[in-house]
TrEMBL record:
InterPro entries: Epimerase_deHydtase, NAD(P)-bd_dom_sf, NAD(P)-dependent_oxidoreduct. One of its GO terms (cellular component) is cytoplasm. Residues 9-216 form the NAD-dependent epimerase/dehydratase domain. This is NAD-dependent epimerase/dehydratase domain-containing protein. It comes from Embleya hyalina. GO terms for molecular function: aldehyde dehydrogenase (NAD+) activity. It comes from the Bacteria. Pfam families: Epimerase.
């Protein structure tokens, strides 16, 4: 267990995951350094804010100096994962190792590729497309560094996330933002497939647990999520919490391909259509068996809190 005097460094603290993790660590009474490229962050009182470029080993080493735990929540643009993510993660690995710090990587589920059952951490990395392959390669490299004794590593994995600050996910602005503006809510994929969603504050709690518990070291963990929902059920809860009827439309694979002709981010979603046209659910038994229950936020509460944030920031 980390002590309050030890330094926890959050890289990518300007993003949705990193900023939420800063809040969680602050609530736990940790000493925190929040790092992003601009240094322009709004953080709780007492959090150190540092402007840093962690894409280079020197920049990452400076950002991580003095840390007991480093949380890798930084990421390049979605369309640049294959070309930029490995070098970024390698620089951060070097920076954390130079500090003698434990590294916790905020990961996702892309590496498993198409699956027919709930995902567990021991599934093969079967992704055939660049984004999934690069996620798999980064995880393997980090765990190899752990096995080699270079540094301690733990990996926490989330599904598609939503929550306050969660603007850029597939259930971000095009769902919550559109709903509060009275626009058509665009749901990517069929509405009838069950899907696990990660609520950002729940994911942050899980990452904090991984950072503070030595039993997390040397492997990947699925952070617990609430029960899977179909798109139809998710939207029904959304409009109930919104307090008024709304308009929604499912974005088909054909529509995604057409929109992708002019929008590179939408085009990139085609790689992971298998996450949308069939059940995409998470098994987090290993996490709860090891660390004890981490009860996910109920969907109604999570959706209501997310709507409140979007109301405050878009109106």
């Amino acid at each position: 267990m980390s002590t309050a005097s030890e330094l926890h460094v959050v890289l990518g603290a300007g993003g949705a995951v990193g900023a939420t993790l800063v809040d969680e660590l602050h609530a736990r009474g940790r000493r925190i350094r929040a790092v992003n490229r601009s240094g322009g962050l709004t953080v709780p009182e007492g959090v150190e804010v540092v402007r840093g470029d962690v894409t280079t080993p020197d920049g990452a080493t400076a950002a991580c100096a003095g840390a007991a735990v480093v949380y890798h929540c930084a990421a390049p643009a979605y369309t640049a994962w294959a070309s930029e993510f490995p070098a970024l993660t390698d620089a951060i690995r070097r920076g954390a190792a130079a500090a003698g710090a434990k590294l916790v990587f905020a990961d996702n589920l892309y590496m498993y590729g198409p699956v027919g059952t709930a995902m567990t951490e021991d599934m093969p990395h079967a992704a055939a497309y660049p984004k999934g392959r690069v996620r798999a390669a980064m995880a393997r490299a980090l765990l190899a560094a752990h096995e080699a004794g270079e540094l301690r590593v733990a990996i926490g994995r989330a599904s598609d996330y939503f929550g306050p600050r969660g603007v850029n996910s597939t259930v971000g602005d095009t769902v919550f933002g559109a709903a509060v503006r009275g626009k058509v809510v665009r749901w990517v994929g069929p509405l009838d497939q069950p899907h696990s969603f990660s609520y950002l504050p729940d994911f942050a709690k899980g990452l904090a647990v991984l950072g503070e518990d030595a039993r997390a070291d040397g492997r990947a963990w699925h952070v617990p999520t609430a029960e899977p929902l179909t798109g139809e059920r998710f939207l029904a809860l959304l409009f109930t919490e919104l307090g008024r009827p709304g308009k929604s439309a499912a974005v088909s694979h054909t529509a995604q391909r057409l929109l992708g002709l002019v929008n590179p981010t939408v085009r990139a979603l085609g790689e992971t259509w298998y996450q949308r046209d069939r059940p995409f659910t998470v098994d987090s038994t290993a996490f709860t068996d090891t660390f004890g229950p981490l009860p996910p936020t109920p969907h109604t509460t999570a959706i209501g809190e997310t709507l409140s944030w979007f109301r405050e920031t878009t109106t």
